[in-house]
Amino acid sequence: MFALLFASLAGIGLGGAVGPSLPLFTRSDISIREAPAENRLQLLRNPNPRLIKANTRKALRARRHNTPVATETANTVFSGVYPCVNLTWGSKTPGEPGQQIISYIDTGSSDTWAVSSQFTCADIATKTPQLQSYCNFGNYFDPTVGIFDNITNSTLNLEYFPEGDVLQGSMGIASITVADLTVLDAEVALITYAAWDNGDGASAGLLGLGYPALTSASAGHYDPIFTKMVKQGIVTDAVFTLAVDREEIGYSPLAPAGQMAIGGLVDASYYEGSFTSVPIDTTSGFYAITHLLVYGATSRARPLTFGGTFLSIVDSSTGPNFVPTPSANAINALFDPPAVYNATLDYYVAPCNATVPYVAYVIGGVEMPMDPRDMLVRNLVAIEGYDDVCFSAFGDGGDATVEDALFWIGVVWQHAYVIAYDQGNSMLHFANRAPY
Ligand SMILES: *[C@@H]1O[C@H](CO)[C@@H](O)[C@H](O)[C@H]1NC(C)=O
Ligand SMILES: *[C@@H]1O[C@H](CO)[C@@H](O)[C@H](O)[C@H]1NC(C)=O
Ligand SMILES: *[C@@H]1O[C@H](CO)[C@@H](O)[C@H](O)[C@H]1NC(C)=O
Ligand SMILES: *[C@@H]1O[C@H](CO)[C@@H](O)[C@H](O)[C@H]1NC(C)=O
Ligand SMILES: *[C@@H]1O[C@H](CO)[C@@H](O)[C@H](O)[C@H]1NC(C)=O
């Protein structure tokens, strides 16, 4: 609907050199500029899409180690969608370049961490100590060379659901550079213990981009890196923007995967039309928005079925969309052949050549559909028996009627949009990606 409107408006300008330009923001009180070039950095594709954390792999592992198979689900099967950035941890020696740590970007958490070269690796199931190489991280942070001032009474203990990976470390003060912006006194964690289920061989860190409320140090909440950038005036606009590319089958590890801009918008070539703005519901501490869900067998199947109004977290590190159970069932039944729930994988799966339905989130009154190319995610790893399995982009997020129900708008949807996370105005702004 929106795209058609834009096309017809642009058409009015035919004959002139330039058509009438739409406002950059549909709300006249919002104005955000493009971030300076040096603060727009390239996102990097997941280093090892061939690793999926799924029951299948668990089962294989359990068989190898002769341990019982737990009834775990497969929330990270979409691993190939998660982008990384190169983060710089500063050096103790003035003038020396810092250490580059390949780090996942996460709008759904707020702690930033890196693995110390002095960490202990353990097996995830048995917790028995292993060689560091067993955990298979990328380049570690070396605390003998880099700045890390231990806050001795504050620790970070993370556990990842559902795989049960455990990370433990100390909070401390380090100098962190993202793009061209440095926070000299960033509060971060150095991981000294990891019970980790096979790293990807390249990453050894994470950049948490959420609000202070989501920080999880033992000594209490603190200001994460982006908040410090804002408070210290390192960025004047309290906004960062993400344009995350859809992954291609067979991409190279760490290939370009889109753009992140700190303190403004990404390069204008990434989007077209106007940004639609909606308030962030900060109750949960997440970047959550209230929206509608509509769907039909095809985009022409009007009127569309109304899937409800609910609250979803926009998270750069959740792959699929999670919607209320009735909508998940109905949407998956509209694939042809239908996507069926697979209890082993805990996802809806369909043949990779299935016809996909039309599904859109209605955000700020604008219908923002899934790109059909993102409706089925191919299993990027050729596990025997799963070579031709594709995952539906819509998973079962549970009951929408319970108190504080929260759902997820995943990376699959985000591939077709540019999203500005505007802490200053407490809003998210969405524009269509320019075709790519
Ligand atoms: C990360 O940064 C380092 C230092 O600038 C560079 O050598 C390395 O190639 C970068 N990695 C990627 C994947 O861009
Ligand atoms: C930080 O200090 C605590 C308390 O002395 C210690 O247990 C911990 O290992 C230290 N962490 C690092 C990364 O040096
Ligand atoms: C941690 O130590 C700092 C500095 O010594 C102190 O100000 C703070 O109250 C301590 N916090 C806790 C939770 O013990
Ligand atoms: C899940 O999908 C795989 C691959 O198609 C299949 O082998 C397995 O039996 C399915 N499990 C269930 C419970 O349907
Ligand atoms: C989809 O692929 C299957 C084999 O995986 C094939 O039997 C079927 O004919 C294909 N359907 C279409 C519509 O191409």
From TrEMBL:
User: GO biological process: what's one of them?
Assistant: proteolysis
What is the superkingdom listed in this entry's lineage? Eukaryota
Keyword set includes Phosphoprotein: no
- Active site per UniProt: D106, D315
A single GO molecular-function term is: aspartic-type endopeptidase activity
Classification via Pfam families: Asp
Q: Which key words tag this protein in UniProt?
A: Signal
Record-level GO cellular component terms: fungal-type vacuole
Q: Which family does it belong to?
A: Belongs to the peptidase A1 family.
- What is the name listed in the Swiss-Prot or TrEMBL entry for this protein? Aspartic peptidase domain-containing protein
Q: What is the protein's species of origin?
A: Mycena albidolilacea
Lineage summary: Eukaryota, Fungi, Dikarya, Basidiomycota, Agaricomycotina
